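Hey, I'm writing a tutorial for new members on how sequence and structure tokens pair up, and I'd like a real worked example in the thread rather than a made-up one. If someone can provide the structure for the chain below, I'll link this post from the tutorial.
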Amino acid sequence: MEIFAISMTLLVLSIGIPDIPASLSEAAFQQQIASLAPKVGIYALSFWILSFFWRVNHQQFYFIKRSTPTLITINIIWLLFVALLPFSTSLMGSYGNYYTSSIIST
């Protein structure tokens, strides 16, 4: 299921690189980088969640001997939400202090 690998790769884009002026001191630069800590934390948590989903999905299909159109439809809907995880990660990283952002991300 490549969608998991793609989603996990896209997660890193939610961190972004801050717009740091070249004239900053080393200490100010370190503060700017440290300000990314919440986004890095959300990235790590989202990566872990996706890896858990991937493992569970893999284990489930180990036991499935044949598929039906209903099973495929359910799996496509599941993958729709998996592919949305990078968006919700980015939303939480940028606007995690808003209640609506938390609701969308859950």
